[in-house]
Amino acid sequence: MAGNRTLTIIKPDAFGSGKAGKIIAHLEGAGFRVVAARVTHLSEAEAGAFYQVHRERPFYRSLVSFMTSGACMPMVLERDDAVAALRSTIGATDPAEAAAGTVRKLFAESKERNAIHASDSDENATRESGFFFSETELVRAR
Ligand code: CMP
Questions:
Q1: Which atom of ligand 1 approaches the CA of 114 most closely?
Q2: Does the beta carbon of 63 sit less than 6 angstroms from any atom of ligand 1?
Q3: CA dist 60 to 90, 98, 137, 140, Å?
Q4: Quick check: is 41 catalytic?
Q5: How many angstroms separate the alpha carbon of residue 140 from the centre of ligand 1?
């Protein structure tokens, strides 16, 4: 995956409360194209593996529990400078600290139930995209 793609997840808080459509519209308004998408309900093993990097953090068990509490929507997004652009579009981890107009300021509930995930580097975007999608599932955006 090139530097123009990144992985996002509309998390169970936002997906379960019917905010997926508004969030996707917001992302498209910021110039992203959806090149792969799926609705899934993560198992504990899947959520634990996805967030392995946080396994020593105090919030890890709670995060895995939240991420398995309902369906979510992983997507691969395409845009110039995708990783940095998406992180700026979604805002700070804690919605209380997120800038006005960002996805988390608009839709998140708390630092944990924060509506949306975004890869933090090109390397992790590639790894996280591969976690959910095979190369043949990635549509070439026009
Ligand atoms: P995300 O961008 O998916 O990356 C890791 C997630 O862990 C983060 O969003 C939050 O959902 C959660 N998280 C990060 N820091 C905390 C914290 N201090 N307390 C609870 N959850 C957190």
A1: 11
A2: yes
A3: 21, 22, 30, 35
A4: no
A5: 31
CB-CB contact of 108 with 97 (8 Å): no
Q: 50: which 2 tokens? A: 């996805």
**Is the CB of residue 98 less than 8 Å from the CB of residue 114?**
no
Catalytic choice (26, 41, 54, 117): 117
Domain architecture of the chain: domains with CATH: 5-136 (3.30.70.141)
Ligand 1 in reach of 113 Cβ (< 6 A) = no
Does the pTM surpass 0.85? The reply is yes
Specify the pairing of strand 33-37 against strand 116-118: unpaired
For residue range 62-71, list pLDDT tens digits in order.
999 999 999 9
